[in-house]
Structure formats: C-alpha cells, structure tokens
Design brief:
The complex is a heteropentamer of chains A (182), B (397), C (169), D (740) and E (318). Helices cover 51% and strands 5% of the residues of chain B. Chain B has two domains: 230 residues, no CATH class; 127 residues, Rhodanese-like domain (Oxidized Rhodanese, domain 1), CATH 3.40.250. Chain B is elongated. Chain B is built from 13 helices and five strands. Chain E contains eleven helices and one strand; from the N terminus they run E-H-H-H-H-H-H-H-H-H-H-H. Chain E is an all-alpha fold and 318 residues long. Classes of the chains: A alpha+beta (182), B mainly alpha (397), C mainly alpha (169), D alpha/beta (740), E mainly alpha (318). At the B-E interface, helix 1 of B face helix 10 of E.
Chain lengths: 182, 397, 169, 740, 318
C-alpha cells in the first residue's frame, strides 16, 4: 500500500464562488483580520454577449514538486505526511524566499508570528482522523472534495478518473495536488 | 506584441517613456540642425540672397527623407497613418502666417527652431530673437481676444486634414517619389544658382565671410542615395500600398440589419439623420445633423450610421472627423421607410421566406409603435368560490 | 570660424529627415519649435492669471488638461537645446557672439532680431506652427496647408530680403 | 517488479533526494511534523438556527472558553444539511462586531442630530412605554405602527396585536417578494413560500429570470441548484447581466431590461400554438384556457424579438428545451421581484408558463410542502378591535394585497394620506431608509413622527433618527420561538442561546414582555422566558424536548409532495383550478391575463440602475461584518466594457452615480468595466454606501443603490414598489470633487 | 480577459511586495564585494614583483565593511529575525537563500585573510608585536596569500553568481526566471566592483586596467541584458507580460534611462574614450556605473515582484 497523497478537487462547474470556504477557513484556523488562506478567482473571457466564465476556489496547491520547499533555506517549508506541503513556524526566518518562489502567491507572512503561513489542508483535522477540511465541509455546492489520491476508491480518485480536469500554471512545473474539474 | 507604428499613440512606452523619446529625438534634431550650420543666422539668411542654398537643400532633403520613409512605411503597413497627427489646413491664416514668418525670418535671420540651436551655441542675437518670439506669441494671444478681425482670420478655414495625395487624387507613395525627383532636379539647379550668385556677390565686394560653405564633395553621393530612395518608394511601396486610411471610409448598411442592431442595443451605435426635415423614421434616439457640420460629440470608435434622403456618397463626408467608423444607410430614409416601416404584403412561397417576413413585420410594427392588439376572448363561465382552507406559505426576503 | 565642420547639407538633411521620421513613427507627430514658447507662455500666464489664461482663445486649450509643459513637443525642444549644445561643443563652435555682417552695428542687428522675433512669434501663432512644425513636418506628411505655408515663407523671405540686405551681405 | 527491488529503488531515490536536498530537514533543531491546532473546535457545541439572512439554516455553534469560535452547518437540519453559506459561517463577525449597539440610548438633541445618552434599560423602557401610552391616549392605538424584519419580530408582532394596532408590516412583502406570491396565488391558489417549493435538485430544466442564484445565496436553494447542474439539467438564465448562474447556463438571454413579460408571453405562445404544452394538466386542471390561447395568438417570438432583443429562433429553442423536460421543468418564481410595477402580472405569467409545463405538484417541478402540527402556547385570546390599517388611502386601492404595505404606512405618517395619520413607529431589525423606495420620503415621514423607537443589533441609519434605541442581542445570544416552516420535509427547529448576551443587550422576547408589563398587557405574556415558551409548544406537539435541544431540529413525516408520490393536486383558487383567466383580476378591473407594457429605455447618457446581491452579504445588514468583508470589501459600479471604452471610462476609477431626479450618491465607488453586463444598464450590489458613522467599517464604502431609487412604480394590483425604473448617469469622482 | 480575485493578503496583493530596498541594497553591496574580491584576488595573482598601490591593498578591509552592511540589510528584511540562526543548521542545495547564507560565511574569513595578508608589512608588524599570540597565524596567512587570492576569486564568483541566482531561480516570476541572471549579476557585480575600486587612489596602471576592464564588462553586461530581453521576448505570454514592465510599463523610463543610458552606455563611451586617448580614467564614469548597478538591482527586485502569471489563463481552460 502506497503512502497517502492528499489532494483536492474543485468542481468549477458547480462552484458559484460564494466564498463560504474562505470564511469557514478563517474561523476554523482562527486567522487574523485581513488574511486569507483560500480565495475565489473568477476569469471571464469573450465579448458581450458571447462569454465564458470560470469560478474557482483556490488555495495552496500542495505541489509535489514545490518551488517553495526548494527555495526554503531552513527546511521550514517541507513535505509532510500525506504528501502535503507544510510550514514549521519555529524554523521560519521570514526570509520570504518561498513567497517569491510560489507561482500561486498562496503564502503570506503572519503579522503576529512573523512567520510564513498558508493552507495546511487542515492537517490538524486530518491528523485526528477527520476526513474533511473546513472548506470542504462548509461548501454548499459540494464543489470541494478532499481525499487521498493514492486510494483508488476515494471520491477524489473517482472524480479525477471520470472528469476532465486541469491544474493551475502547469508550465511552472510544480505538479500540484490541487485539481480543478472542468 | 503588435509593433505597428506609431508607438506613443498606442500606449507603448507609457507617458514617461514617451517624453524620453522626445528628449532623444529632439537631441538628434538639434544636433543635426547645428551641424548643418543652422545655428548661424547669416548662413540661414544667405538662402534669401541665393548665394548659399543650405536651407533649401537641408530642408528639402529632410522633407523628402521623412516623406518617403513615412509613406513607404505606411505603404507596407508598418505605420498606421491615421494615428499620425497631420497638420490640418486653415488656408488663410496659413498663407498669411507663412508670409509673415518669412518676413520675420529674413529680418531676424533665424526661425524659432533654429533660434534655439543658435542660442545654445552661444549666439546673443538668438536670445533676442527668442525674446521677440515670446513677445509675439503673447501679442497674438492678446490680439486674438481683443480683435474680432484677427479671430475671424485665425478661425477661418475648415481645419480639415487635407493632404496633397488626397487633393491631387494620387497615392502618397507616388507623390513622395515625384516630390523626391523634383527635389533632385531642384538641388542641381540650386547648386548652379548658388555658385553663380556667390561669384557675383564676391565680385561686388559683398562680405560673405563666415557663412559660405565651399565644401560640397558629398553632394553627388547624397543625390544618388536620394534618387535610389525615391525609386524604391515609387516602385516598392505602391505595390504594397493598402487603401489610404486617411480617406473617410464609409461602408454601407442595409435597413433591416440596422434595425436588428438597434434592437440589440449595440453600444457604439449612433444614428444621425442628415435630412433637413422629417421626423418620420421612428428610430429611438435618432440624432440630427447636417452633412457639412458634424456633431461635436462624436466619439472615436463609435459606429455612426448616417441617413440621407436617398443614397449618400462617402465623398460628401469629407469634413467629418476621424475616429468614428462611418456607415451610410443604403437607400437612405426612403429605403428605411420602405423596408422597415412598411409591412410586407408580397406573397411568400417558402417557409424560410415566411419566417423572415414574420420577423420583418414584427420589427415594422415595433418601430411604428403599433402594438399588436391582443385578441379579445370570450369570458369564461362564472365560477363558484371553492371551499376549504387556503394555504399560503409566506415569509422571507 | 570653422566652416569645414559644417556637414554636407544633404547628409545633414538626411539625418534631420530620419529624426523627423523617427518622430512620426514613434510619437505619431512631427517635430516643432513654436509649441515651446506658446506653452511656456501659457504656463506662465496660468501662474499669474489662471482665469484669463483659461478663457484665452490662444492659451485656453493648453491649460485645460494638466500641466501645459508636460508635452511631447516641449520636451522635444529641450532635447533640441541639448543636441544643439552638444553639436556646437563637438564642432568647437560654442562661442558667445552676435552674428552679423560687418556692414551693420550690433545694436541694429539686435533691434532687427527682436523685431523679427516678434513678427515670427505672431506669425507662428497665426499659422499654427513655424518652419519646423508647418513647413518641415507638415511638408513631409504632405499636408496641403503646410505646403502653402512653406511656399509663403519663401515668398515672404524673398520679398523683404532686399530691404534688409545690409544686415547679411 | 519485485517488491524488494521496488523498495531498493525507492530507498536509493530517498537517499538521493536527501543528498540533493541538502542535509535533511530533520537535522538538529527540528520538530518534525509539527501540527498546529488552531483550537477552533468547541468544548461545547450548541445547535441553533441562523439569522444572518431569513432562510433559517440549522447551525452548530462551537464555544470555547466562553467564546463562539466557529459556526458550522447542522447535518441534521433539512435546510443546511451540514453546510452553510458564507454568511452563516461568518456569524461570529456579527456577534463580535465592535460597532454593536451596547446599551439602551435615549435621544438628547433634536431628532436626526444623532445625539444620544446611554441609559439603563428601566429608563429606556419607561420612556418607550410612556411614548406608546401617550399616543394611545391622545390618538388611539392604531396610530402606532410596527415595521419589522426577522424571526425575532414575532414577539413584537404579538405585542402590537395585544396593544391593538393593525399597522404591522414587513417591507419584505411590498418591496421584495409580494408580487410573486400574489401572482402564483391567483394562478395556483397558493404562493411559493419560503423556502420556495421548487424541487430544483430533481429538475431537468431550470429557467431563472433575473434571479442570480449563487450570488443570491440561500443555502438550500443553492445546494439544490448545484445538484441540478451536477445532474446536467439544462439551465436557461434571463438576465441583463452575465451572472454566476448565467455562466453555468446552456442559454444566457441578455434580455432588454423590463421586457421579461414579452419573453414569457412568447414562450407561452410557442408552447400553446406550436405545441409542447402539457395537454393533460391543462385539460384536467386548467380554467379559461381557450381565452388564454386566443390571448397568446399574437404574442409570437417574432413579436417578442424587437421588444426583448432575443432572436425568435432562440425563444423557440428554449421553449422546446422546457417542453422536452416537462414536467420536470421549473421557471423559477424569483424572490426579489418588485421591478417595474407590473410584477404581479409577470409573476402570474411565470406561474402560467409553469402551468403549461405541468410542473405544479410534480417531482423536479413545484412540490406541495407541509408543516408540522404545532400547538400554540396557552394564553388568552387577543380580541380584534376592528380598526383598519392606515397603509392605503382607499380600500379599493391595491385590492389584492394580502398584508399591510410598508411604504403605505410610511406614507400614512405624512398627514393627509389616509383617514388617520400615524404618530409613532417601532422599527425592529429593518433599516427603513435603505429598504423603502425614495429615502427622501422616508426621512420626511420620520420628521413628522411623535415617537420612534428602534430595536436593532447594529447602529443602522434609522437608529440615528430614533428617540429611543434598544440594543437587542444577536441570534447567538438568545432563545426564540420554534421555527416551523412549510417544507417538503416538515420539521421544527429551535433557536438556543449559545453564549450569554454581550454588553447590556437583551433578547427581543424580554423587551416585548417588559414593554407589555409597562403597558398593562402582561396577561398576553404569561410565559417565563422564550425557552419555556418554545419547549411548552414542542411538548404540546408531542415532541421530545431533549432530542430537540440536542439536535436542534425535529423532522416530521411528510405526506406526498408530488403526483409521482401519490399527491392529488388541489388548487385553492376560486375555480379550484389553475386559472389561466382570472375572474378576480377582471372583477377588480385588471387584465385577467397578463398584458405586456413597455418600460422604455434609458435616456441618452443614462443607464438603467439594476441592483442585486453578493453571496457574502444580506444587503446592508451584513456590510459592517468585518469577517464577511474579507472577500467583498465594497461594491463596484458594473459597466459594459464597450460603453466604458467609448466614454473613456477606466476600470477601477472612482465614480459617483446621479439619477434622473438629480440625486447623487453620497459616496463614490470604483467602476467595474466588464463584458458581463448589457450596455444600457449598470449594476450595483445592494447594501453599501452606509451613512451611519457608527458603522465604522461600512461607513462610506461604495454606493448605496437605495438612495438612488427615488422613483418606484407601484403595482396597482398589490402595491409592490417596482424599483428598477431609475436611471443613473456616471460622474467621474475627480470631476465631482473638483466642483465640490 | 477579466480576472478577479478575492484574495487581499498584505505583501501579496494586489502585487507582491515582499522584498524592498533592503534586498536591493544587499544585492548591490554583495555584487561590489564579489567584484572587489575577484579583482583584488586577480591582481594579487597578476602582480609578481611590482607591488600594488596602497589603496588596492587596503580595499579588502572595505570589503568586510560592505558585506557587513549588506548582511545587516538582509537581516532587516527578515520577518522573524530571532530565527536567523536557523540558516546555519542546514544546507539546502536547491535553495539559493541557503547558498547565500553559507557563502557569506565563507566570504568573511577569506576577505579577512586577504585583508590581513595585503596590509603593508610594517602595519602588520605593529599588530603582531602587540598581540604576539597571533604571530603564527599572521605569518602563515601572508605566506598563503596567493592561495587566499585564488580562494577569494572563487568565493567572490560564487557570491556574485548567487546574488543573481537568488532571483533567477524563481520559476514563479517570469521577469526573474532566467539562467542569465547569475552571469548578469556576476558581470555587473565585477563591473561595479571595478568602479568602486576606481574611486580610490590607485596608481595609473591599475586605473587604466580597471577602466578598460570595466568597459569590456559593460559591453558584456549589455550583451547579457540583450540576451535576457530576447529570452523573455521569445517566452510565453507571461514572459511577454513581464517584458512589458520595461517596455511601456512602470519601469520603462527608469530602466532605459538610469540603467542602460546613464549606467551603462554613457560610462562605456567615457571609458572607451579614456582608453582610446590613453587618459587616466576619472571617477565620473565609475560613479555612473555604481549608480547604474544599484538601479539595475533596484529595478530587478521591484519589477520582478510585479511579474507573475496572474493574468494568464491556465492551460486548457478556455
């Protein structure tokens, strides 16, 4: 049995961009005012009235080839259990090399601790055996699915097998574990 | 990146960068003027005594070079000529202004541009000339506000952009080539004239020291290159030349498609009625204009549809500003009335035509404001109020 | 005076033409000189009497939107000053003097310079440009009115030349 | 590959990556995989239901160290199903809003000067009772009016009924959903209720007309909406704006504003005259169909085309799509439907198209909901005194309005409108200046009042104009009455106190009872507290109170909700049938069948002002919520990109709006230059541009659409105020501020 | 395309602003130090009999001062300064920041040795007499000074390249993401180093050499910049967007005037003329080069953070 590789899919067909995930993440992780770990991106292409719009709930992509982990000089940014990318605050010097390296601008400097922080895929929940992240739990359109990509029977594996998907900025070569269903 | 010239009007370089180009190009301009000897009033004045034709030669070489370059580049599509500012024509003030400028030129020995160059090469007379120019500008400003005659003169003329190619009806590249060839001839003449004049003046004991250029070794080389340039322009550019974009291009639009665009609320659409009288077109938001005086608030990028009594010739719109796209209603008001405001009565035979006719008739009714009347229906039978509880879930917002 | 350091007029003309062409293709407008005095005066008047300036038919258009000096042509003239200076320095022509014929006094020469300057300032305002903006730039872009202007410049010059010949020859 | 070999390669790879990645991260000083627990899970989890909007989803409030840390959806509650919208999740932002009203305030300066003195509850309540008593003595009880919004208002309504005033009104009727309820009632004999009885999760074709689901974020409805998308239902969205819903749609019809009725008539024409309507339903349940068929004859898609701008072929295709999916097809009734003053007729037309599709009482169409039988709390009956409400000048006006009209009460405060003038108001949780059309008129009415008391959580604009302001505690700090809605799964939900009230705030039930005591109405408030009240009712209905408290909800068994489940549809109209031809309308002097009227186009230089919602806000109620504002900080003026380009307007530049009456917005907002809106309209999210300085976060953010709504076209049938009839011009902020 | 995001994290939105003038100063000083290390090392190897000028021999002390100022700037930029010892618990081969931290650790002893070994003998003797304990080390390092010179060239090069790689190894920022940034910063560093040295009282031969060398380095730098621009122009949509930062974007005027015109072309012409006329290079061109070098780093740091992939559609999306 392979190790777990956590990942997330967001169904862009059903996501309405309501930002419940953003608020739930903020209260779940008790983030300071003015900071978010996930966000809504909308992209519209075309000319009126021929328009196409995509709405995505985005966050740290937990790349399998993470530019931030490579850039980190102290090992504060590292690959952790479940193949996620985590930041150990006690090792972070706040040099911000990881922020410069992240193509997704998913990281921020927490003003209180001075350390870099970002989405953890709710590792405080999953390490306790919970199956969902806060954003997934709240999502009224059930667009967010979190799970083990290495488990062929997980919902996320089924979704990726059945649906067309893409990852963000594939040219950056980061191999994200965050997928967007078309 | 679309690199078609000109760059600044396309937002390339931004504002700061644009001003930087001004500095660079200006410096080259100033450098060339100085090196040509235009910092010296006597040398300039010599032009008018024909013993040193440097002004003529430099000026026409420059004009020919820039002209051939500009029209050749636009001919091959590298320059979008309608974004290049071209001096509009106000004939009377230009004629008089030109004459006065010539007078001032010979009196002072410098023109405004060369005065700047002369100034920085240390010439005191240039400073005085520039003081004069500033005074003259101020004087004119006072005059313009105070003298109605001056204002009438200044504002006379249409201010249209009239180019020689447009006026003469030949393409810019050919004209450029022609001008280049004429200049070539003129240069040869100028060389001859100045030699003779110089000799004559010398003989009469005139003081020509410090202004006469004796060195003209490179002239045949320069003439040769100009000839080559002009030939290039004359042969290559016309082959590649596209439709002259300075011409006011008006395309036609038929009444029914226009009606559909009105219904679609096309934001750029602006419809102007050019007829003197008549309010019978029933087009919502229709504006009035006369062919000779376009409205002042036309916006660039607008699609301006012009309606005359009948067909309108694009040539009639010579004085309309650049920027908007002009379209003329084919067949004019007459066609509009016939094709849009008159319901179809002709027999139609196939389904497709029938469908089209249906749409057309409804469009016709809508423009005419004749609401299709709902057919009155027989009242239904009187009913007994139902018994039983009425449930009405309520609430919320 | 070092007359040899004057360039061949045709070569100078070509360089001038290329500068003009560069102005057309980069800035979308020709070169000019009289915009500088116009805008400087407009700016100065705007400092002293903004109401009059804004209402003035000649200057109102310059002060309507932003700083009248933040303009391509104004900066271009500053470039001309720099370029002219470099040209004079490199040719060894930088020398304080009054250029005149030996037939006239310096005072007379300067009086005529002022007179001619005033006439040109007036004429450049009336004709919407000077030798640079109208004759050179307009001529190169084949503007009809500019060619008329150019012809009239020569006409004006030749018409009066005989009367002021003492100054020059 | 052998397993061992695999391991070897794996091992080598791991060693290699250690070498390449430098000395491993687990070297000296490392803490390994440090997992930080933010500690937001509650030590205590209290089920309740939400009040950030009026949908009333079930929530679980997590409490830790006496603070509410987070709010999650209650999985047992049929409306939330464990999930929440952003507002529900952001309820703590309201609870811990630093700008909350903290203690009772009594006006000291002149009214509107916004000078107040903090007083004790006793003083404040005495003042209110005295104010009420004075009006009752001098003029009679009917001279006092109650405006309300929200679930907690039940106590105040009860107080007013006991007090004897018939003037009890919620703006949510005439300013919001009234027309659709009347329209559907006239057709099917029943409104659609809240939650709406649409079965979107099972539908095959959903038509939304100006309804921006997804931006209008009613939890259950959006859940069902996403289920419909997931099930590949065909979505047709009619909206001048490319809304989120439109981006999910198979057809987006960017209709000319105001012409929806023409489109509906054309659809009905296609269904009836070109085939596709449900003959069985119409034959069995329809009344007056022949007249309707005749009426539709001229309303062809070609007729609709110049009016709506939608091509006839598209109208036919969309109609065919609906007919193909029928009866599992829904033309959604919408919610905020007061647009153009003919809204009842438009809503009726929506009902009629649904009738043609045969979707009433069908799975994937409209279900017939039911309610848990719940006993009233035993108390003396309030006797009716026969006084008439003051909202209408003549009884014949707005004959089909079935509640008191809020704007009517406001008008009645200005002398000479009705038989008697109102002298005092109580306003509960409704910020009238941003709710009623034409705030100028609202302020004029307020100036005429003898007495105004507001009960609110936040210092909204109306508080500044009050004589007494009573600070209520939030929904997380109080217990309320049981919630017992009509729903496909009937249930009873309980609101429970999660934490003790902060500051000196008090629950509504307490305020109402204290006032009743002071007004001599204590007999109508015989219960101990709201908890006892709710549990007594639950007990009376045979529900287990402990389970109800633990789960927050008790679900009942539903009778059949659709024909497929064995429902026999009943129509409580006069004819007992689906009324294609309405005798009631005809007798009242209205068109018995909907007739299209044109609402014109904006004059040159103006745009039609449209307003709507953003998912994180319930209009002005939540715009001061700092937590919710993380994702939406202020509204923008949506303008078509082509229009902006022509006018030289830039994305992001600050603009003011000025309407046709010369009213200019108090603040500016950035321009959103977008392809997503028609060229003849601008769009604003409602609820911004707050003018109450005490709302320190929301003050001055964006443009208030309400202050630009100075015109309203009143629906003659039921008094709904059509508010999309205003036109605005766009002014550059720099130009405006230069002049000022 | 219209794109909106609800994210508004400080330092990240609307544009990244994590690094400011502190980092620009650090990169600038690091470049000078690298240049001085390489040049002084090279000149030590070059000189066999003839002794270099006093100024040249004392310059390595200046190195120590400059690198300390630079490191202090970097320290100021850290958000969590109390954790900065963490840099020295691990070495991460992929992390330029880690390389930088360790290289600085190498630069100090090498510079110190160089400085000591180059200090005129009588001054050294004064010190050794006062602190006799240092004598064995003091004499050894003078003996080994040619080895230290070689080491100085190596560590200077690593430092110079690293200042560029720190930015160049960011695939996320198209404006930076170029393998040419290392060589560019190295060459620019040596050029600014040479210019820095020219500010001091060197002898004529040294001045001529440095002046001409600087001219050649500027030519190389212009070449690398041209290649870097061409590389970006040949890249994808994101690279083109990044290129627009210096072609019409907010950094256009600053880049072309301060860096190219004033910082490179003008001094190059001046130095060439000086070389051609066999004049002794003055300090004017050197100051321009230093100004240009600082402007280059300043613009690089700021403009790079402006570039990103934000406006680019994700692959296969539309």
């Amino acid at each position: 049995m392979l190790e777990q590789q956590f990942g997330m899919t967001v169904d862009t067909r059903t996501c309405v961009g309501c930002a419940a995930c953003v608020i739930a993440c903020k209260t779940e992780n008790r983030l300071a005012e003015g900071y978010v770990r996930n966000w809504i991106t909308t992209q519209t292409r075309g000319r009126f009235p021929e328009l196409v719009m995509t709405i995505r709930s985005e966050r740290c992509n937990h790349c399998r080839s993470a530019a931030c982990v490579r850039a980190c000089p102290t090992g504060a940014s590292h690959y952790a259990a479940g193949g996620t990318v985590q930041v150990t605050g006690s090792k972070c010097t706040g040099c911000k090399a990881c922020m410069a390296a992240c193509p997704y601008d998913a990281r921020y400097v927490d003003e209180q601790s001075g350390t870099v922080d970002k989405c953890t895929f709710c590792n405080h929940r999953t390490s306790r055996g919970m199956a969902t992240t806060a954003c997934q739990e709240v999502c009224p359109t059930r667009s967010i699915v979190f799970g083990d990509l290495n488990d062929p029977d997980s919902e996320i594996s089924h979704l990726l097998a059945q649906r067309d998907w893409y990852t963000l900025k594939p040219d950056a070569g980061t191999r994200p574990s965050h997928y967007f269903l078309k | 990146m679309d690199l078609t010239f000109p760059w600044l009007p396309r937002g390339f370089f931004g504002e700061q960068g644009g001003l930087l180009t001004a500095l660079l190009i200006g410096a080259v301009f100033g450098f060339a003027l100085e090196r040509a000897g235009f910092g010296n009033g006597r040398k300039l004045a010599a032009q008018f005594y024909l013993y040193d034709m440097t002004v003529f030669k430099v000026m026409f070489t420059a004009i020919v070079t820039a002209m051939v370059g500009l029209y050749a580049l636009s001919g091959v599509g590298l320059v979008q000529l309608d974004l290049v500012w071209i001096n509009p024509t106000y004939l009377a003030p230009q004629l008089l202004g030109g004459f006065l400028l010539g007078v001032g030129f010979i009196v002072s020995g410098l023109c405004p541009g060369t005065a700047f160059v002369s100034l920085v090469s240390g010439k005191l007379d240039a400073l005085v000339v520039l003081v004069g120019v500033f005074l003259g500008v101020l004087l004119f400003a006072f005059g313009l506000d105070g003298l109605p005659a001056l204002e009438a003169l200044y504002t006379s003329g249409s201010g249209e952009v009239l180019t020689l190619p447009g006026l003469l009806g030949i393409s810019g590249s050919w004209l450029a080539a022609g001008v280049a060839l004429m200049a070539l001839g003129a240069f040869i003449g100028a060389e001859k004239v100045e030699e003779r004049m110089a000799a004559r003046l010398k003989k009469n004991g005139a003081d020509l020291d410090g202004s006469r250029v004796t060195d003209s070794r490179g002239k045949y080389w320069a003439m040769g290159s100009l000839l080559a340039l002009s030939l290039l322009a004359a042969t290559a550019a016309p082959m590649l030349e596209q439709e002259n974009p300075r011409q006011l291009v008006a395309s036609g639009v038929r009444p029914l498609p226009l009606a559909e665009r009105i219904i679609a609320h096309e934001p750029a659409l602006r419809i102007l009625d050019l007829r003197e009288a008549g309010t019978d077109l029933r087009i919502p938001g229709l504006g009035k204009a006369s062919p000779t005086s376009p409205p002042a608030d036309l916006l660039p990028g607008q699609h301006v549809v012009l309606i005359a009594e009948g067909d309108l010739d694009a040539k009639d719109l010579a004085g309309w500003p650049q920027g908007p796209e002009y379209e003329v209603l084919e067949g004019g008001a007459q066609a509009w009335k016939e094709q849009v405001l008159t319901p179809l009565e002709a027999e139609v035979y196939n389904q497709e035509a029938l469908d089209r006719a249906k749409v057309q008739n409804e469009i016709c009714a809508w423009f005419n404001g004749t609401e299709s009347k709902a057919v009155s229906a027989p009242p239904p039978p009187v009913i007994q109020p139902a018994v039983g509880s009425r449930k009405k879930p309520k609430g919320g917002c | 005076m070092n007359t040899r350091s004057y360039w061949n007029p045709y070569l100078a003309g070509v360089l001038l033409g290329l500068a003009l062409l560069a102005a057309f293709v980069v800035a979308g407008q020709g070169l000019g000189a009289s915009a500088f005095p116009k805008r400087v005066i407009a700016g100065a008047c705007d400092v002293f009497s903004p109401e009059w300036t804004a209402g003035s038919a000649a200057f109102g258009k310059y002060v309507g939107s932003g700083n009248p000096l933040a303009n391509w042509l104004v900066v271009e003239v500053i470039g001309v000053l720099i370029g002219g200076f470099l040209g004079a320095v490199s040719a060894g022509r930088l020398k304080g003097e009054v250029v005149r014929s030996s037939n006239v006094t310096q005072g007379r020469r300067l009086f005529f310079a002022l007179l001619g300057g005033v006439i040109m300032g007036f004429a450049a305002s009336l004709g919407r440009g000077c030798t640079s903006g109208q004759a050179l730039s307009g001529g190169a872009s084949l503007a009809g009115g500019s060619w008329a202007f150019m012809m009239m410049v020569f006409a004006g010059g030749y018409a009066v030349a005989w009367f002021v010949r003492k100054q020059w020859i | 590959m052998e397993r061992r070999e695999f391991l070897k390669i794996g091992g080598a790879g791991a060693a290699g990556s250690v070498l390449l990645g430098g000395l491993g991260t687990d070297w000296f000083g490392s803490y390994g995989d440090e997992i930080k627990d933010p500690g937001s899970d509650g030590e205590k989890i209290v089920p309740s239901f939400c009040e950030l909007c009026f949908w009333k989803c079930g929530i679980l409030a997590h409490v830790r160290n006496g603070r509410v840390t987070k709010i999650t959806g209650n999985p047992k509650h049929p409306l939330s199903r464990g999930r929440l919208c952003p507002r529900g999740a952001g309820g703590t932002g309201l609870l811990y809003d630093p700008d909350r009203l903290q203690q009772p305030l009594v006006r000291v300066g002149k009214r509107g000067q916004q000078k107040f003195e903090a007083v004790s509850w006793d003083t404040a309540l005495d003042e209110v009772a005295e104010g009420f008593e004075k009006i009752r003595r001098q003029h009679g009880p009917e001279h006092l009016a109650l405006f309300y919004h929200g679930f907690g208002a039940n106590w105040m309504k009860h107080l007013f009924k006991a007090y004897g005033s018939p003037n009890i009104s919620a703006p949510s009727y005439a300013q919001c959903r009234g027309p659709r309820d009347v329209g559907f009632d006239l057709t099917f004999g029943s409104g659609v209720g809240s939650p709406e009885n649409t079965d979107m999760a099972n539908t095959r074709c959903l038509v939304l007309i100006g309804n921006h689901l997804g931006e209008n974020m009613h939890n259950t409805q959006v859940q069902d909406f996403s289920e419909a998308i997931r099930n590949r239902a065909d979505l047709i969205v009619v909206d001048p704006r490319f809304s989120v819903a439109a981006s999910k749609a198979r057809y987006w019809l960017p209709i000319r504003p105001g012409s929806d009725l023409a489109l509906l008539l054309a659809w009905a024409h296609v269904l009836v005259h070109e085939g596709g309507y449900d003959r069985e339903t119409v034959n069995q349940h329809g009344y007056g169909f022949d007249a309707f068929r005749e009426h539709l004859k001229s309303h062809t898609p070609e007729w609709a085309y110049p009016r709506t701008g939608i091509k006839p072929a598209v109208i036919r295709e969309t109609a065919a799509l609906m007919a193909g999916a029928a009866p599992r097809a829904i033309v959604h009734p919408g919610r905020h439907v007061t647009w153009y003053g003919d809204d009842t007729q438009r809503s009726r037309m929506i009902a009629l198209v649904n009738a043609l599709l045969g979707s009433w009482g069908r799975r994937g169409g409209f279900l017939v909901p039911s309610q848990v039988e719940l006993a009233d709390y035993p108390m003396p009956e309030i006797r009716k005194n026969g006084l008439q409400p003051a909202d209408r000048p003549a009884a014949s006006q707005y004959p089909l309005a079935d509640t008191v009209l809020a704007q009517g009460l406001c008008n009645a405060t200005i002398p000479g409108y009705h038989d008697y003038d109102l002298k005092g108001w109580m306003v509960y949780g409704s910020n009238l200046p941003t709710t009623l059309p034409d705030p100028r008129k609202t302020y004029e009415a307020i100036r005429k009042l003898d007495f105004l008391v507001t009960i609110d959580v936040l210092p909204a604009e109306i508080c500044g104009w009050s004589d007494v302001v009573l600070p209520e505690c939030t929904y997380l700090e109080r217990c309320d009455d049981l919630h017992n809605p009509y729903y496909k799964e009937p249930y009873v939900a309980v609101r429970q106190k999660v934490v003790e009230p902060l500051h000196q705030t008090k629950p509504g039930w307490w305020i109402a009872r204290e006032l009743a005591d002071r007004l001599g109405l204590e007999q109508f408030f015989p219960w101990k507290d709201s908890e006892e009240y709710a549990m007594e009712r639950a007990h009376g209905a045979g529900l287990d109170c402990e389970t109800l408290r633990r789960d927050g909800v008790a679900t009942g068994v539903s009778p059949p909700t659709c024909v497929e489940d064995g429902l026999r549809p009943e129509f409580w109209t006069d004819s007992g049938k689906i009324e294609f031809y309405s005798n009631r309308l005809q007798q009242a002097g209205f068109d018995p069948m909907p007739v299209y009227t044109d609402h014109g186009d904006p004059p040159a230089g103006y745009f039609r002002l449209l307003f709507g919602r953003t998912p994180t806000h319930t209009f002005g109620r939540t715009t001061n919520n700092r937590l919710l504002s993380e994702t939406f900080k202020g509204n923008e003026v949506w303008l078509n990109a082509e229009t902006a380009r022509l006018r030289g307007l830039k994305h992001g530049e600050q603009v003011y709006l000025q309407n046709q009456d010369g009213v200019r917005s108090s603040f500016s907002a950035p321009l959103k230059v977008t392809e997503r809106i028609r060229p003849d309209a601008v769009f604003l999210v409602h609820g911004y541009g707050r003018k109450a300085r005490e709302l320190r976060f929301a003050f001055g953010r964006g443009i208030d659409s309400a202050e630009l709504v100075t015109q309203a076209k009143v629906d003659p049938i039921m008094g709904g105020t059509g508010m999309n009839v205003n036109f605005v011009a766009i002014l550059r902020a720099e130009d405006v501020e230069e002049v000022a | 395309m219209e794109a909106t995001s609800t994210r508004a994290n400080p330092l990240v939105d609307p544009g990244l602003t994590i690094w400011n003038q502190d980092v620009a100063i650090y990169l600038f000083l690091g470049g000078i130090v690298a240049g001085v290390m390489i040049l002084s090392g090279a000149m030590r190897l070059w000189y066999k009999q003839e002794e270099p000028s006093l100024a040249l021999r004392l310059l390595p002390w200046g190195n120590l001062a400059l690198i300390s100022i630079g490191m202090f700037c970097l320290f100021l930029d850290l958000e969590n300064r109390f954790n900065s010892w963490r840099f020295y618990l691990v070495f991460k081969a992929y992390s330029p920041m880690s390389w930088g931290a360790w290289v600085l650790l190498l630069v100090y002893p090498v510079s110190a040795h160089m400085a000591w070994a180059e200090t005129p003998a009588h001054w050294r003797e004064t010190v050794l007499r006062k602190v006799p304990l240092l004598r064995p080390w003091g004499e050894w390092s003078v003996r080994a000074r040619r080895n230290f010179a070689a080491l100085s060239i190596v560590s200077g090069s690593v430092l110079g390249i690293y200042t560029g790689i720190l930015l160049g190894a960011m695939p996320s920022r198209p404006f930076w993401n170029s393998s040419l940034l290392g060589p560019l910063f190295l060459v620019s560093g040596v050029s600014t180093g040479a210019a820095f040295m020219l500010l001091f009282r060197l002898n004529q031969g040294e001045r001529r050499f440095l002046g001409f060398l600087d001219f050649l380095l500027i030519l190389a730098e212009l070449g690398i910049i041209a290649l870097w621009i061409i590389g970006m122009a040949a890249g994808g949509e994101a690279s083109l967007q990044a290129l627009k930062l210096i072609f019409g974007g907010p950094y256009t005027a600053a880049f072309w005037s301060l860096v190219i015109a004033l910082g490179l072309v003008t001094p190059a012409i001046a130095e060439f003329i000086e070389y051609k006329h066999r004049a002794i290079p003055g300090r004017g061109a050197a100051l321009l080069v230093l100004g240009g070098g600082f402007a280059l780093r300043w613009i690089m740091v700021y403009a790079g953070q402006h570039s990103g992939w934000a406006s680019e559609a994700s692959a296969g999306l539309f």
